[in-house]
């Protein structure tokens, strides 16, 4: 799944994916699903300290009424996914380059559960606590709270606001949230649970059909 930490639709998409994976595991315990997270920085031009959140969205959408309408849409979608977001707490639109570097660096340093916990905590820090996730001390503290040694991760972070490209530089071109199934882009956008569940079942059926053709 391609994502950025500042995109609420990515968090909503992740929650729906989690739900779909739970249902899929119950229906097909014989099939193992591996989820890979591909970071895609949306606003690479932001300074390392970020910019005022409210001013950013007023400039982006044109008016405060447009911002309120967009946020109402996001909050409603989040509630349907079982979450409450605290957009009113967010003061800074952060530069997410270091957050992506942190997560990428953590991928081979802990368990799958630790990685998912770190992903969740970075999302929560931004969307529920209103913390500036562009700050190195914040990121390293979150990593440590998930059981990671912060020292090797600290060496991956930068102070120059250099853009994050990561191992999958093409991910940004897919759009976020983007769902890639069996290596191919299946859909972009915060898809509902039913669609994701059907896509997982369809991917298994496609793979089984391909194996039968080769047999």
Automatic annotation (TrEMBL):
Domain DSBA-like thioredoxin, residue spans: 3-200
InterPro entries: DSBA-like_thioredoxin_dom (IPR001853), Thioredoxin-like_sf (IPR036249)
CDD domains xref list: DsbA_FrnE
Source domain of life: Bacteria
Family matches, as Pfam families: DSBA
PANTHER family according to UniProt: GLUTATHIONE S-TRANSFERASE KAPPA (PTHR13887), THIOREDOXIN SUPERFAMILY PROTEIN (PTHR13887:SF41)
Protein name, as recorded: DsbA family oxidoreductase
Organism: Pseudomonas schmalbachii
């Amino acid at each position: 799944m391609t994502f950025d930490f500042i995109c609420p639709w990515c968090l909503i998409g992740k929650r729906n994916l989690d739900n779909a994976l739970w249902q899929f595991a119950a229906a097909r315990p014989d099939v193992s699903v591996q989820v890979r997270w591909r970071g895609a920085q949306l606003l690479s031009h932001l300074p390392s300290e970020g910019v005022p959140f409210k001013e950013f969205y007023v400039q982006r959408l044109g008016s405060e009424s447009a911002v309120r309408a967009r946020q109402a849409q996001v909050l409603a979608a989040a509630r349907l996914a079982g979450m409450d977001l605290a957009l009113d707490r967010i003061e800074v639109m952060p530069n997410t380059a270091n957050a992506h570097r942190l997560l990428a660096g953590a991928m081979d340093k802990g368990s799958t559960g630790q990685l998912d916990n770190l992903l969740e905590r970075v999302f929560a820090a931004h969307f529920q606590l209103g913390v500036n996730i562009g700050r190195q001390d914040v990121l390293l503290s979150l990593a440590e709270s998930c059981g990671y040694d912060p020292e090797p991760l600290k060496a991956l972070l930068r102070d120059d606001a250099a853009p994050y490209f990561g191992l999958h530089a093409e991910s940004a071109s897919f759009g976020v949230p983007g769902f890639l199934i069996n290596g191919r882009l299946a859909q972009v956008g915060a898809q509902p649970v039913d669609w994701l569940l059907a896509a997982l079942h369809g991917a298994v059926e496609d793979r089984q059909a391909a194996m039968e053709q080769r047999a």
